[in-house]
Amino acid sequence: MTHAEVLVWNGLKKKQMLGRDFDRQRPIDAFIVDFYCKDLMLAIEVDGESHNAVGADAKDRARQDRLESLGVRFLRFTDEDVKQNLDGVLQAIRSWVRAET
Predict the structure, then answer these.
(1) pTM over 0.85
(2) Distance between CA 46 and CA 96 in Å, rounded?
(3) Are the beta carbons of 26 and 67 closer than 8 angstroms?
(4) Which residues are within 8 A (CB) of 87 and not within 5 positions of it... i.e. 6 or more apart?
(5) Which residues of 40-67 are buried (b: 16+ CB within 10 A; e: fewer)?
(6) What stretch of H or E contains 47?
(7) How far is CA 19 from the centre of its chain?
(8) Are 89 and 81 in contact (CB under 8 A)?
(9) What's the first-to-final CA gap in the chain, in angstroms?
(10) Distances 74 to 6, 15, 64, 68, 94 between C-alpha atoms, Å
(11) CA-CA distance, 64 to 60, in Å (whole number)?
């Protein structure tokens, strides 16, 4: 895991996110998402440097479109968002989870 992923994981593991169980590096279909809550069908992605490469946007979009066609919903954050505003990222996740329950 990247440093940013570790930071997010520390806020999700052990059902810390409103009692929800999240997995890390969860395989779904032919892909692996950074974090996943099965009950909510929620994938959380932390986009680091590799997502800035040429063609990465199209690849990410196709991947997300495929998983969304299976009912998976997404929250995406950049590596910088996490490092500079971890509390805000965790609050955004918390707000999304509350809205869905």
Answers:
(1) yes
(2) 16
(3) no
(4) none
(5) bbbbbbbbbeeeeeeeeeeebeebbeeb
(6) strand 42-47
(7) 17
(8) yes
(9) 29
(10) 19, 19, 8, 8, 14
(11) 6
CATH architecture of 3-100: 3-Layer(aba) Sandwich (3.40)
Query: Are the C-beta atoms of 47 and 53 separated by less than 8 Å?
Result: no
> Which contiguous run of DSSP H or E holds residue 35?
strand 31-37
List the beta bridge partners of residue 58. none
Q: Is 21 exposed, middle or buried (0-12, 13-18, 19+ CB in 10 A)?
A: middle
- Are 25 and 38 in contact, with CB atoms under 8 Å apart? no
Distances (CA, A) of 43 to 17, 33, 54, 86: 14, 6, 24, 17
10-residue mean pLDDT profile of the chain (101 residues): values are 96 97 97 97 88 69 95 96 97 97 81
33, 64 contact by CB (below 8 A): no
